[in-house]
Amino acid sequence: MKVEIYSDIACPWCYIGKRRFDQALERFDGKGEVEVTFRPYQLVPDAPATASPHRAWLAERYGPQSRAMDDRVTELGRAEGIEYDFDAALHANTFLGHRLLHLAETEYGTAVQGVLKEALLKAHFTDGVDVGDRAALTEVAVAAGLDRARVAEYLAGDEGADEVQRQLDEARELGISAVPTFVFDGQWAVQGGQEVETFLQVFQQVAAEQQHAEQQVDATHGNGHGDACADGACAI
């Protein structure tokens, strides 16, 4: 089973959603056969390269209710073991961070990419790190297991930029307009930081659908019929 998670480093609900998803995956009997990949999404693609205080930016965007928004997320995050520090958090452009996640996936694998994703979320929301700064990103990446020289070289140039932009464009074309969005096997999408039990039910349902599809293919091959088209879909 392949799960693609569209999320942004600067999305507080993406942090909560990841923690809940991880808990559900740990409880899923077929967890060893699940591959998780993080796909890029930018809530504020035009965020400036120079970071600014999160509180001031959110207040300018949402007005007086911004403080209550942060307080609500802080309360929910604490239940998932997340310590949000919005006083220290910085509003930053996350494109470089998404490039770094792309590097992790392509050269280290999805497991390391997952470790880096968690580290970037913590850096942004708990530690007050500027995730748009190359030097800061390098330190986070090295702590997550990436090679320092390779990361520095990668971030100094434009490697991966076109591919990340292509994936960002694809997300929009797919109709993804809010994050986190979890896409299971390219067919089923779950949006938002759902409860653990909800994610677990989705895992079980997708696994059941996979098993059912495999049984249908086996039955088709067994009865000698080559036409496996039914209900608007064809099995190849």
UniProtKB/TrEMBL annotation:
Pfam families in UniProt: DSBA
Keywords annotated in UniProt: Isomerase
Organism superkingdom: Bacteria
InterPro entries found in the cross-reference section: DSBA-like_thioredoxin_dom, Thioredoxin-like_sf
Molecular-function annotations in GO: isomerase activity; oxidoreductase activity
Cleavable signal peptide: none
Positions of the DSBA-like thioredoxin domain: 3-202
Name assigned to this protein: Putative DsbA family dithiol-disulfide isomerase
Organism of provenance: Kitasatospora kifunensis
